[in-house]
Amino acid sequence: MPLEGEGGYFRFLHLFGDSAGCIYYLITPSDFSSLHMLDGDEVWFFLEGGKAEQITYSEGGSIKKRILDSKNRNCLVKKGEWQATRLIEGEYALFCTIMSPHYEDKLYHAPERRLLELCPELKEYTHL
Question: How far apart are CA 64 and CA 111, in angstroms?
Answer without folding.
Answer: 17
